[in-house]
Write a structure and sequence with these properties.
By secondary structure, this protein is α+β, with helices and mostly antiparallel strands. Helix content is 23%, strand content 32%. The protein folds into two domains: 172 residues, Rossmann fold, CATH 3.40.50.300; 124 residues, OB fold (Dihydrolipoamide Acetyltransferase, E2P) (Beta Barrel). The chain has a six-stranded mixed beta sheet with strand order 6-7-8-3-9-10, sandwiched between helices. A five-stranded antiparallel beta sheet has the order 13-12-11-14-20. A five-stranded antiparallel beta sheet has the order 15-19-16-17-18, with no helix packed on it. A hairpin with a 3-residue loop joins strand 16 and strand 17. Helix 3 packs parallel to helix 5. It is elongated. The chain starts with a helix and ends with a strand. Bound molecules: adenosine-5'-diphosphate and magnesium ion. Magnesium ion binds next to helix 2.
Length: 381
Amino acid sequence: MNQQSTENPAVKSASDTASQDDYLVIENVRKLFDDFVAVDDVSLNIRKGEIFALLGASGCGKSTLLRMLAGFEKPSAGRIILDGQVLNNIAPYDQSVNMMFQSYALFPHMTVEQNVAFGPKQKNMPKAEVARRVEEMLALVQMESMAKRKPHQLSGGQQQRVALARAVATSPKLLLLDEPMAALDKKLRSQMQIELVNIVERLNVTCIMVTHDQEEAMTMAHRVAVMDAGKIRQIGTPDEIYEQPSCRYTAGFIGSVNMFEGKVDEDEKDYVTIRTPDLETPIYVGHGITGYDGMKAAFAIRPEKMHISKDEPEQKYNKVQGVIEEIAYFGSHSVYHVRLPSGVEVLCNFVNMRRWDSESYTWNDKVWLSWDDNAGVVLTS
Ligand SMILES: Nc1ncnc2c1ncn2[C@@H]1O[C@H](COP(=O)(O)OP(=O)(O)O)[C@@H](O)[C@H]1O
Ligand SMILES: [Mg+2]
């Protein structure tokens, strides 16, 4: 489930162009619908040119936050400041913020070029400039040859490209995308994700996207905010979020994870051990934590960081024997579900390097699982 970040390395090439760290400032923003808190005290600083993803389960408040940025909703409290200007009380059509809706929001009776020309015309751009702008935008999304077509004569991916061209035609300061790929099938979606990032980066437009799809957020965004029940749980680059989750929620939400709940047994400067009812021996973690003996803590480790072997590993700590109960074959890798004597099930990935590797382990095999001292993280919140 971690493949996205390695599969598309080119996607994040221009991620470190932070010139203005506080181009968009979201300051203690709240939104109440009657007494229901949809967005709860959110603060965020977004850099100019950054692609930022709000990621979270359905209903956590992502769209509400985005709609406040677009001016469709007014914050109940807090401020939104874009390029030094407070946006709270500015009407949507006065803002230099554009929202890209899903492809079906194209005007059906207008041609591709008329769709793209719509925004610039609304802004009273001179005719010649509108034409130049449309040409430029269609070239950008490689739709010049279809300028005269109507939306119904286009494929889903092509409609998506036109929608993007239309959204950026007025050079918005902020581009907002709400579940931008929801209407596309999986293959087309991953292709469009890369295309969209390349275009947005070429234009250097600041972009905030909302998605419930972690792969989409990880592939496209420079940074990701994980949201839960109106609150932001963690902000970080995709690999920070994945490799260094700060709390149980993020660890469990992003990718798959084995989580062992227990207590800090030995709390030393350069290592800790954690005792958990799931394992017979304490877990040895090769770094210190801010904690104390007896503190409640969880140890979280990703399935791809578990080693599997038939023979007992030589290491002193961090190994356990179990029985393979299920095997899920994904082509590139298999996931073994290993049942431990405590009854707990542990997931372990195995990369299928050779064609018949998956046959080296099978159901009901007794195997050893082991992991390195720094392969997992200790979570105390
Ligand atoms: N206009 C509204 N009136 C009342 N409740 C709303 C309104 N808009 C959204 N909500 C509620 O706020 C919560 C967050 O919604 P939303 O921001 O759309 O979530 P997400 O986009 O993360 O799925 C949901 O519980 C939703 O029912
Ligand atoms: Mg939504």
